[in-house]
Every structure is written in C-alpha cells, then in structure tokens.
Amino acid sequence: MPLPMPEKIQKTVQSNLTPGQIIAKHQQSAPINVMAIANDLGLNVWSMNLPGNISGKIFRDALNGGTSGFSIAVNAKESPVRQRFTIAHEIAHFILHRTNLETGDLIDDTMYRSGLSSAEESAANSLAADILMPFPLIQKFITAGMKDVPSLAAAFQVSQVAMKIRLGIPVT
Ligand SMILES: [Zn+2]
Question: In this structure, how many other beta carbons lie within 10 angstroms of the beta carbon of residue 117?
Fold first, then answer.
C-alpha cells in the first residue's frame, strides 16, 4: 500500500473543465499546484519507493486511483522539484497519449523513456514545461524585477536547468 502524498488522501472529483482549462485555472500564481491539476483531472498522485532507474509512472489503479481510474506514482527518492516535473510529465501523457494507456501502464525511466516514441516523450516534456512554467507568469515575475535563473527556478519550484531551457538560456 503506497503512502499518499500529504495533500492527497481522499478520492478526487473529476472536473467538467477541459484539460487546458484545468491547467490554466491553476496557473494564476507560482509555484504551479501540479497536485491540484492532477486531482482535477481525476488522477491521484503517490510518492512511492520506485526502483532507482524509474522516475515515475501512470497506471490503472481501480482501488486507489482518482475518478479517471488512474494514478500517477513518482519516485520518492528523487528531489521535490524533480518529482514535480515527473508529475507534470505523467499528466501530459494522460492528456496527450490516453489511447496508449488503454493498452497498459506507462513507466518512465530517469530519462523519461516509457516505450513511446521519442517524439511523444518530447511532447510530454514540452507540455510538462508549459504546465510548470507558463510564460505569462514568468514574464510577470521578470517585469517585477526577478531576472535571475536561481530566483525564478525557486519561485516556480523547478530545477535551474528546466528554467534555463524554458528561457532559452544555453545549458552548460
Ligand atoms: Zn514519458
């Protein structure tokens, strides 16, 4: 029996909003509440002791899943910002690659390879970045004077590398 993450114990109620509307609803302030997005999509999220080469998965979970019937699990041994990105990546799979989920669970290794094509993994990473680092909100912070990557990464609770990629700054 996996331990629930603190915010998520009870069953979630699936929203009537579209995925895009659900995401936008939770992008008004930073850090983006990625758990709330998952829950609104009918997904429960669990921080679990996964094997070291696995970052996360999205799987059919009749007993403990959300109203969608699916749960996301993330590797409890990875850093909080990494777990947040993995949750966003699995949410992206749920939105973009739902048909693949009908045939089996998606398990992502630490390179976010789940057996889908690299184009599909890229699309999931791209949507994950869109979820966690919406440009209008980043712009708001920059306009307010927060212009350095460490501060922005901390405000959005993402890795500095993820924020650099988002801002188009070369990662060395
Ligand atoms: Zn993936």
Answer: 10
